[in-house]
Structures are given as structure tokens and as C-alpha cells.
Amino acid sequence: MAWHQAETLRALDDPEVDVIVNTAMTGDGKSLAAYLGVLTRDRTTIGMYPTNELARDQEGQVRGYIQQFAPSWEPRLVRVSGPELEVYAREAEIKKGAALSSLSAQREVLLTNPDIFHYLHRGAYIYDKDSSDRLWQRIDNDFELFIFDEFHVFGPPQVAAVINTLLLLRYTMGRKKFMFLSATPDPQLIERLRLAGFNVREIDPKAADCYRSPADDTEAQALTEQGWRRVSRGLELEFIRLEPSPRASEAWLRENASRILEYFLTYPGSRGAIILNSIASVKRLLPHFQAIFIAAGLTVRENTGLTGAAGRRESLEADLVLGTSTIDVGVDFKINFLVFESSDAGNFIQRLGRLGRHDGHESANGFAPFQHFKAIALAPNFFVERLFDTPEAPFSGGGTFDRFFLNEQIRAHYRQINEFSGYYKTWGAIQSLKIAYELGHTTIKAQYAEAKVAFSDACQQVFGVALSPLFGRVKGWEREWHELSGQKGNPIFDVATSFRGAGDLQCGLYDPTETHQADRFKTYGLPGVLANLQVEAWTKAEFLAALEEAEQRSGRPIARGAFKYCLAFFRLIGYREERLNWKFVYSGDIDELLQKSTAQVVRGLEVWQPENPDIREINKRLRQEGLVCFVVERPVLEVRNRLRLPMHFQIYPLADERSLYDANAPCSIAFGQSALLLDTLSARLPSPATSWIAGG
Q: Mind listing the pLDDT tens digit for each residue in 147-159?
């Protein structure tokens, strides 16, 4: 047992420890450490993963642990995702809440995602007249340990949501155990958990001097003889200098596909991955690589957010997989070759961590050992210059360096994204207000009277703001929305209390290229559709008719909850070789939007894209939508660079009738949670005549 695994087990046994943060490096067995409580202590556990693909991967690992340890109590395991929950409920002809209760009952291990955990505790799976604790009280009572894996991929909205839920559990269910697993933990999460009064135990093998980086094979062999276990294999890392343009990586890969094939021919039995930032790039490159590799008897598959579940599973057995973030978030690929692009320091370190974790892979002919490990980083030229060309450069060509030093230099010299630390005070407590309000429901008010006071006090300590005055803000948003639309509701409040956002720009997409019927029905953001896809506009009725026909052919229900609020529906025809330009256009006076330097709900938006024959139908629906936005009087690229916004931050060009034909739209508009995050930087968004100061 590794040091960090033993320390994790000790922390689980320590009644004074509330939160365990295990920061062991990638591949060092954090997952096993997390489930030692189940395997050796009969401790019932909920494990939460940021992607359904990772949860599926971990299900196989945990079942393997159970088989290996063979505990006498024979822990029972179930995995639940949103689509699976919906299908189960439909087949059983019950509500989702009853389905979730049924699936989790009499199970020792429940694997799911933090989204379901979040909405469970916000009353999403119960009837309106039910008490808010009707479902979560029973489920929380059944489980003792709550694991959050790869939580560093989330930002402040998700961190705030989880802190609120942990505080709810603390003051309504007594002391539970919580565990966070991440090689690169979020310091803001740890700091705020301590502010909330949780006793946090950090388990850091590096700080405990539990890692060694041998200089050569002789030293490595000596460490093995002393009982040290290899975590990561040595690798060759090559940097490719590219211009920082959207298609630079794609162009390099297209030109160097034969060179990549040569590696597989030189080292037979190799397996590799190419990780890119753009789904469209993967889709365009896939047939090119397949045509080249098939002649050598090698398989190439994809793994992206638009790849069906069956396709993602098949990609794990391919010789080369092209993918996006669905690969780098924890899925245990067994590869010895990696090409990747990245958007910031954390993204670089995360993706490089996919390589060097395994000595080989199982093939049709038995175990195939890896002979060599290589990574190619497709990086902006200015970043590579900082690493190699300046007088203070930390690296020289042909040098040997350990991973910890490499990671430190990547963090020091590569782009750091904005941490949005102001989000917690501005928006984090809005979630607290919702929970406190639900604890005051007439059916449970007396039961949780003390818990509500303690919860509210703790939230004020964590987020630095009293809850009572926030009620006026929420009612103000509700009033403004009614004045704008004549409808009931509160879009800003809905976004602020969601987990990943409301998905206002999501579209339904029918993909006829998928073999499996259920995988043909997907969602994709409108900006991606406009820029990268060739599509045929469908009505919602046409889309659902195709879905029902597919259900009849397959004899199985297909989850359709994701399509309930889609903005538009399309049939996929293909992927564009060149991105199409487009912009949002506001039909009213854009100065009125700019004057309100806070998040707001906007109606009357349209898309300008003259080449698109379907744009009239898209705009017919879009201009009726009330979208949570934040508007900035600066071009998108400038805002992104100055404020160090994350790669997939939802901010797009915005024009009005006066600037419709300008080469670059003069304004930017952010949506959903991105709008709330940008709102926290409003004090740092000067007028166009003022100089910028970037910050977090």
C-alpha cells in the first residue's frame, strides 16, 4: 500500500477529519485510496465524476477492486447518469425521484456525477408540494462517504455549489466524510472549506517526500529493489512551435500524419492519442488519419463530446484515438504516444498526465509492452521561447528534467486563466439563499429551524455576505423579467442556482453517421453549429419524430430530457473545412445594454450569417428567448486576452445595425454562467478610452 493510500485510510478512520484532499500524482492510485473505506471498512460511498465517460471507466476499476479484495460483505454497486436515470424511470413507469431512490437503495457504492448530486439537494426530483428533504434526506442517510474526483476541472460556480451542499449535509445530517481527489487541487476550495469550519486533511505525497525521479535506469532499478513502485514512466517531450491561430495545430497534424504513423511502425504495439481543443478539428482530421493508418493495418477512432457512447467505448481499443477534453479528464487510456495542444498551464499539465501511466496494453496476442514513450506538445511560439530561448530559460534542448520541475516551469511561463475569486461573494451565496429558503418550507420548518440558522451563519462566513439582503436582489430580477416578457420566472436566479448553467444556446442535433440509434441524438451549442457544421434545419416535431422512430426500431427508450429546452434542431450533413464567420446582433439600442454593467436578461438577439440559408428560422426562435447575458464594449479577442478567460468561456462578438458590417464587432456578449463570471470582473472593465489592467 502506498503512503498516500495508508494516510487516506487513517483519515477516514479519524472522527475529527471532515474533508480529505488527496493530491497524489496522476496514476498513483488515488481511486483505490478513495475506495479503501468500502473495501476494508464497509463504508457506504457515493463517488462523483465530472463526465459520464469517467464514471463508466471508474465503474470497471471499482468492480475490479471488489473482485481483488473480495470483502465478506460483498458491496453492491450501481452507476447512474442523467440519461440512464431517465430511461430507467420510463421503463419502470415511475418518476425520476422514485427511480433514483430505487437505484440507490440497498447499494454500498453509488457512482454518479456532481450534477445529479447538486439537483438532488435542490429539490429537482420531487413534486412541488413535497418537502424539500423528501429524497436527499433518505439518500444522504444511507451513505457515509462522498467522493469528488477530478474536481479541479470545475470553476467557482461548481465549487460554490458543492460547498453549499456540504454545509447543508453538515447541519442537517450530522458529520459525514467528504473526499476530493486531484493532482492539481483548487486552493480556493480548500480555503473556503476551512472557512466553513470543516477539518480538512491534505494528503500530499510530494510534500511528504514520497516521490523520487531517478536519473537513469540503474538508479531506477535500485529504487525498485528498495520497494519503491513506479508511478510514471520517463518520456521524450518535443515542443512544436506554432503561431497562436485557431487552425495551426490542425494544419501541422495534417502535414505530419505520415510522421506520426512512422512512430507506430518503428515501435510496434504502440497506442496513441491526439488531444485537441476543437471537436470540429477532430472531425475534420479523423478521415485523413484513418486513410493513412488503415494501410498499415492500424485503427483510428474518435472520442469527443459529439461521439456516441458506443464510439467512445470502442475508441479505448484503437491504435490511435483523436479526441478532446473527454480524453484528458481522468479516463485511463493505455498509451505510449501523445500529441496535444493546450490552452493554459493547468490544461497542459493535465493532458501530459495521460502519458506514461502503463507499461503496455492487452492485445489479441496477449500483453504488448510499450518500448518507448513520447509526447509532442503543439504550443504557441511565444510560450516555447520563454521555455528555451531567453537568458533565464529553464530548459535546453536534449536535457533531462523531472516532471515536478517541468510542471513548475509550465505554471510559471504559460498562460494562467482567471480564477474569478469575486464570484463567491457576488453569486455563491445566491445558492445559499435558495437552500435556506427551502429549509423554511412549512413541512420541515420546525425540524430544521436550528439547522437553517447554523447553515445561514456558515454561508455568511464562507461567502462574506449576509443572506437576508439577497432576497431583495432575487425579487428584483423576477420583477424585471416579468416587465420584459410578461412571463413568470427568474432566468438569472435559475442560472445562479444551476450547477453548470442553463444551456440557453444548446441545440438538438441528429447525426445519421452513428451506428447505434440512441447515439444519433445529441446536443451541441449554437455557436459551434454556426461556425463548424453543415446542417439542415429541422423543427422540434421532426426531431422528436425521428427519435420515436429510432426507439421503435431499437426497442429501447432513448433519453430525451436534454432536448426539452433546445433552442433549435438540426440534421447533421457534415463538418466545414473552414469556419464560417458569424456574430450576434442586437435589434434594439445597444447603448442601453452597455449602461447596465451587470448581468441582465436580454431579448431581441439575432445571428448575422448571410451564407446560412437557415438563419431566418434560427432567428425566429432566438429573438424570442430571454438570455442571461453580460455585455462589454470591447471586441471578443481583446476581452479574452486581457481578462485571461478560459478556453470554452461563452463570449461572442456582438454588433448592432451601426456596426453590422464592421470587420470586427465592437462589443462582446457572454451568456449563462459565463455572464455571471464576467459580472464579477465588472469593476475591471473600463470604458474604451481607458487602459486595461488584467487580473483575477
A: 999 888 889 999 9
